[in-house]
Amino acid sequence: DRIPWLCALHDILRREDTSRQDAILACSALKKMYRHVLISGASAIKSNQPEQPGENPALKVLFVHLDGSMDIIAGRLEKRRGHFMPPELLKSQFDTLEPPSAPENFITVSLEKSLPEIVLEIETAILQG
């Protein structure tokens, strides 16, 4: 049920890339396949392989893995009001998570840092390309 939504997000990223616009997309792409769809679109589902040269090249995406313990994230979830994600689903999110790994383009940022430190680390990674 997530695949059409991920394909729509890919299309938005592709449109922005074609227009030479930078874009920041926030979503919980917990599984490697979800991240593959964000980069390659519907072709990722058909082949489950990287696209071949000359075929609708994949987007260049930097994934930011916000890494923190269940306790830290649970504490933050409890402080949210009116958010769609109930704290009761947190364990299932951790169970589903496939942390990014090579050859994915990603950085891991610790949630133990302050918000300004997190933002600075992400900005620095983006600016370094």
Automatic annotation (TrEMBL):
Cited CDD domains: GntK
One record GO biological process: carbohydrate metabolic process
EC number annotated for this UniProt entry: 2.7.1.12
Domain of life of the native organism: Eukaryota
InterPro entries according to UniProt: P-loop_NTPase, Therm_gnt_kin
Reactions accelerated catalytically: D-gluconate + ATP = 6-phospho-D-gluconate + ADP + H(+)
Pathway recorded for this protein: Carbohydrate acid metabolism; D-gluconate degradation
Keyword tags: ATP-binding, Kinase, Nucleotide-binding, Transferase
Cellular component annotations (GO), alphabetically ordered: cytoplasm
Gene Ontology molecular-function annotations: ATP binding; gluconokinase activity
PANTHER family: GLUCONOKINASE-RELATED (PTHR43442)
Similarity comment: family membership: Belongs to the gluconokinase GntK/GntV family.
Full protein name: gluconokinase
